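Now for today's protein.

===
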Amino acid sequence: MPPLSAHIENAIGSYVLHSLRGRDAKLFTKSAAFATISATLDVTSSECGVSGSSLHVAHTPLAENRFPELSWQQPPATANENGPAIKEYVVVVEDPDAPLPNPVVHGLYYAIPGSKTALSPRDFEVGQGAKGYLHGGFRYGLNRPKCVWSGARPVLGHGVHRYFFQVVGLSKSLELGDREVVTKKVLQDKVDGKVVAWGVWVGTFERKFGLHGE
C-alpha cells in the first residue's frame, strides 16, 4: 500500500495544483535571442523515439536517473568552406508544466564542441580531466537541485509533464571560463547574437498513483 505521504501528494497534485502548468513562454528558447531564428535542428532520441515520446522510468530519479540518448544533425545552411559555422552547443532541459512561476531547469550544459551531434548517458559522468568538465568534454551549470542532471519527477497526480530538451548551436564560443555559477539567465544573456541554429526534443512523463512503487 502506498504511504500516507503519497496519498497526500496525489490529492494535492490532482486537485489543488492541477491547473498550474504551461509556462512555455518562459522557456530558454523563448527569449529574445531566438526571436528571429526558426528551429532548424532536428533533434531525436534513439531510445525514446520522436519528439513527444515518453521518457522511460530509467530516465527519472525513480530508477537510474540517467540522461536519455539524444542526437541531431547540423542543417546545411550552418556550414561553409571552412567547416561548420557552429562553434559550440548549449543544451537546456526544462519542465514548463511544474506548478511554479517559472519552468524547472533539470539540466544546463554549455561549451559542447561544435563537432558533437549526439549525447549519451556516459557524457554526463563527472570527468577526471580539466576542472568543471564532464566526460563528454563540456561543462554544466546550475539546475534546480544543484547537480549534473535531475530527471523527470513531476508532482504525483499532476498529469503528464513535458520536458523540453533544447539544443542550441552558436556561432561563437561563450568563453565563460571558470565562472563559479552559470545559471539559465547567464546563458540567455551570453547567447544573444550568437544563435545560428536550434531545435527541441520533447519527452513526457507522468507519475501515477500506485505505479513505480508509489
